[in-house]
Design a protein that fits this description.
The complex is a heterodimer. By secondary structure, chain A is mainly α. Chain A has 16 helices and 4 strands. Chain A folds into 2 domains: about 250 residues, no CATH class; about 150 residues, abc type-2 transporter like fold, CATH 3.40.1710. By secondary structure, chain B is an alpha/beta fold. Chain B has one domain: 3-Layer(aba) Sandwich (Rossmann fold). The longest helix of chain B has 16 residues. Chain B is globular, with a radius of gyration of 18 Å. Classes of the chains: A mainly alpha, B alpha/beta. Chains A and B meet through helix 1 and helix 10 of A and helix 2 of B.
């Protein structure tokens, strides 16, 4: 036991003097989690909280374009900024820039006229089909409506652009439907349609009720913090490979290893010491990043991290993640011949495993074959377990299904390490 | 408890070859080194000195034959026999990031010493080897001579019965060399068998009483240094060495 303790003390001392290693293990992930969360939070806010500023250039003098603008305003998704009606393409871009808007709409000059003509035509057709006499005035030949132009900043995510397009289509339909209804009513009753009836007919739609689904009944809305803190904590824990595998290789290729092999102590004690030391490092990393999410994020206007209700489950999952990260790093260290090999392979492999594991792009968004490959990445099971706890309000019993494969992969790393050490006569 | 025999090292019918016969080959080597001797193992580059030392310390495993240290076979799964000897390799075999005392703490524990024994021996060794003032400074900033002394201190922290020394004074100044040789003689007086290899033949003459000249995987000549010099009519070890191993370049 004293040998193990002495070995742990030695490893801790070496680790504390490895300034670059400590930076890679702590400072880099902290910066990463703050920067990525800030960036993603602005996207979340763009989608969820902030209204999108829309510059409207209304070239139409009719009433329907005003109704359209008013309807767009009422959707609740946009903040409408009116621009002059005679802007060209270049001036439109300037207006967007001045209003800090990512979107702009140009309503064509014949917008009202075209919709009114279409409404009249539809009304006449309806009257004829009812067997009533339609307006005797000569019907104008209908031409296709001039399209609205939606200008957008190319950096706006495609998903947001699709949502905006859907909202505008909906606003257009409301304006068109209202006009058709009014025209038809006027043709039948020769008086304006009462506003109350119009409201009833247009607004009496079935509502959509949104119900959040979670395993534990939690209704905490997911946000950038809840997504990023677990993901980058896992990344940080696995990134200890830069320090740990390098430490294993350094020990192997340095003179100290020759002496270690002549000592009356098995090298496995040294590896066990590294496992314990670096497992503690990974747990400390998690503590630092979670603390950051809990207490520091609110100071920089980021949502505070909501810890899962099942804290025991969180600790257990974190230990499983940390031990898997340590096992992988030692495995790489045992098989690498030089520190350059260990560092190069280690860094690249972690980035690849993160990408296929779903840390960068959610696994559900991946194509079929990649989804299968994803399950081979230990980081996939780590993020599944963490997302279960952090986003779905799950408890330990719910995420066991993710922990079991993680433990299996850890066992494979340990077995490979054992084989590597045996082959090299080190244990 | 390890019992003592009259031989510190007893090698019988030792056969060894590197994979693909890429290095020196031993074929039926026999060597006995009595307890308490100051034994020098010499030979040209590639003669097989380091290979033989690695076989004696268990770093290499013989194909056939046995190596016994103080009556205990080396190469068994049990590493208990490793407590009986210390090893001072030519390379600096310690953690450069740590201080001398931190290195001694770790290696002392791995040699099986208690906390108290480590503290006592560390203080003693650092004093003898003139490292007390720098005992808490990282070794990586030390001079070559200071690092050699740290290397030696670690190899003897557990008071070994046998001490293997592979070029223990290479690259050090005269003062450090004298200090190391004096300390080795002192250790020997206390009962430690020294098994030493070096290309510093003048230094070796002052340290070793018994020598073996190794070449091409064979012991060319073995015996008391004085007797061998007398037998061949040479003034010093270097002349004897050239006489028995030739003047051709060795790779």
């Amino acid at each position: 036991m004293f040998k193990l303790w002495a070995s742990i003390v030695k490893d801790v001392r070496i680790l504390l003097r490895d300034k670059v290693g400590i930076s890679l293990m702590f400072i880099m992930p902290v910066i990463l989690v703050i920067v990525v969360t800030l960036i993603q939070n602005s996207t979340f806010q763009l989608m969820n909280k902030n209204k999108l500023t829309v510059v409207v250039c209304n070239q139409d003098a009719g009433k329907l374009s005003k109704q359209l603008t008013s309807t767009i305003n009422k959707i609740g998704m946009f903040k409408v900024v009116q621009a002059a009606s005679n802007l060209n393409e270049q001036q439109m871009g300037d207006a967007m820039h001045n209003a800090d808007a990512m979107l702009a709409i140009t309503i064509p000059p014949d917008f009202s006229a075209k919709i009114e003509a279409k409404a009249k035509s539809s009304s006449n057709k309806a009257l004829k089909s009812f067997g009533l006499q339609a307006d005797s005035a000569k019907e104008e030949k209908l031409t296709a409506p001039t399209p609205l132009i939606l200008h957008y900043n190319p950096s706006i995510p495609e998903s947001i652009r699709f949502s905006v397009n859907g909202a505008l289509t909906s606003a257009l339909q409301i304006v068109e439907s209202r006009e058709t209804l009014r025209t038809l009513y006027f043709a039948i009753n020769e008086k304006e349609m009462p506003e109350k009836l119009e409201q009833e007919m247009l607004n009496g739609k079935a509502e959509i009720k949104q119900v959040p689904v979670s395993k534990g009944g939690s209704i905490t809305a997911p946000n950038a913090t809840q997504h990023n803190v677990p993901a980058w904590t896992i990344f940080a824990m696995f990134f200890i490979i830069m320090s740990l595998s390098g430490s294993v290789v350094r020990e192997k290729v340095s003179g100290s290893f020759i002496r270690l092999k002549t000592l009356p102590t098995n090298f496995a004690v040294g590896l066990l010491s590294k496992q314990i030391t670096y497992l503690c490092v990974t747990l400390f990393q998690a503590l630092v990043i979670f603390s950051l999410g809990l207490w520091f994020f609110p100071y920089i206007n980021l949502p505070a991290l909501n810890l899962p209700a099942d804290i025991f489950g969180l600790v257990l999952v974190t230990v499983a993640v940390g031990y898997c990260a340590v096992s992988y790093a030692i495995c790489v260290g045992v098989f690498a011949h030089t520190q350059e090999q260990a560092n190069g392979f280690g860094a690249v492999s972690i980035v690849i495993l993160s990408a296929i594991g779903g840390l960068m792009v959610p696994a559900f968004a991946m194509p079929g074959a990649l989804k299968t490959i994803s399950s081979l990445s230990p980081l996939h099971w780590c993020i599944e377990a963490y997302y279960g706890l952090f986003l779905e309000g799950a408890g330990l019993k719910d995420v066991v299904i993710s922990i079991i494969p993680l433990v299996g992969i850890t066992f494979v790393f340990q077995a490979l390490t054992f084989i590597g050490l045996k082959r090299k006569n080190l244990i | 408890m390890v019992s003592k025999t009259s031989f510190a090292v007893n090698i019988e019918n030792l056969c060894f070859h590197y994979p693909g016969n890429s290095g020196v080959t031993y074929d039926g080597l026999n060597l006995k080194i009595a307890e308490g001797e100051r034994f020098g193992l010499f030979g040209p580059n590639g003669a097989g000195k380091t290979t033989l030392m690695n076989l004696m310390t268990g770093l290499l495993v013989a194909d056939k034959g046995t190596v016994e240290l103080l009556g205990h076979k080396i190469g068994n799964k049990s590493k208990a026999v490793n407590k009986l000897f210390g090893f001072v390799p030519q390379d600096f075999s310690f953690y450069q990031e740590l201080s001398p005392i931190e290195n001694l703490d770790f290696f002392g524990a791995w040699y099986g010493l208690s906390r108290k024994q480590i503290a006592h021996r560390s203080a003693e060794l650092l004093e003898i080897l003139g490292l007390t003032d720098v005992s808490h400074k990282a070794v990586e900033n030390f001079s070559g001579g200071m690092k050699r002394r740290v290397n030696l201190a670690i190899g003897v922290i557990h008071n070994p019965g046998i001490l293997f020394l592979d070029e223990p004074t290479v690259g050090v100044d005269v003062q450090t060399r004298h200090a190391i040789i004096d300390y080795l003689k002192q250790l020997n007086k206390q009962g430690t068998t020294l098994i030493y290899t070096s290309h510093q033949l003048a230094e070796a003459e002052g340290l070793c009483e018994q020598i073996a000249l190794v070449d091409k995987g064979e012991i060319v000549r073995e015996g008391k240094l004085d007797s061998l010099l007398e037998e061949y009519g040479h003034q010093d070890l270097e002349e004897l060495f050239l006489n028995l191993t030739g003047k051709d370049y060795r790779n």
